[in-house]
Amino acid sequence: MAATGKEPAGGAAGTPKHDDFATAGWFVVKLQDALGDESYFREVKGLDINIDVETYDEGGKNDGQHKFPSPAKFSNIILKRGVTKSTKFIDWITSAVNRKYKRATGTISLRRRDGKPVMEWQFINAWPTRYAGPTLDAVTHDLAFEEIEIAHEGLSLQGGGGGGGAGPNPA
Predict the structure, then answer these.
(1) Beta carbons within 8 Å of 87's beta carbon, 6+ residues apart
(2) Considering Cα of 145, then 132, then 89, then 127, what sign does the dihedral take?
(3) How do residues 69-91 score in pLDDT, each as one tens digit?
């Protein structure tokens, strides 16, 4: 069936349209109480949640083990950007070095091409654990990048997931 442009939101039969998908290259990062309005980053890594499995061998139960979920573990988030005149990254990590931890709440919002948010990761009680300055090499003409790694105490996902659709239709 040819697309007529009159399909319901999400395309024919509830499938997502091309514009519903987010591109991995358009996102906004906000760290309240730490970096202020600075939200331009080249790369974000570490949006991971891991739940390990604990096993228990019950005496007399020879057909398998009981399996239980362990508490969730959250990976550190790594933010990478081009070096600017701003010292907010350095200031934040320096405060942590001096044991004056300034914890922050943050959001990473993945956007569609039209700028509307598709999904958003929210993290709480974040603080810097590592700063990496740029690699300087007089032979290359590469851009200078800096990274900051932040630990946090929880990651939650808001939004559709799965490519930008509204998720499964509860029928």
Answers:
(1) none
(2) positive
(3) 999 999 999 999 888 888 887 88
DSSP state of 138: T
Distance CA 81, CA 118 (A): 22
Within a 10 A sphere around the Cβ of 154, how many other Cβ atoms? Answer: 13
Residue 148: CB atoms within 10 A of its CB come to 23
Write out residues in the chain with pLDDT < 70, as ranges. Answer: 1-25, 34-39, 160-171
The CATH number for 22-159, chosen from 2.115.10.20, 3.90.1860.10, 2.30.110.20, 3.30.1490.20, is 2.30.110.20
Bridge partners of residue 41, in order along the sequence: none
pTM for the whole structure: 0.72
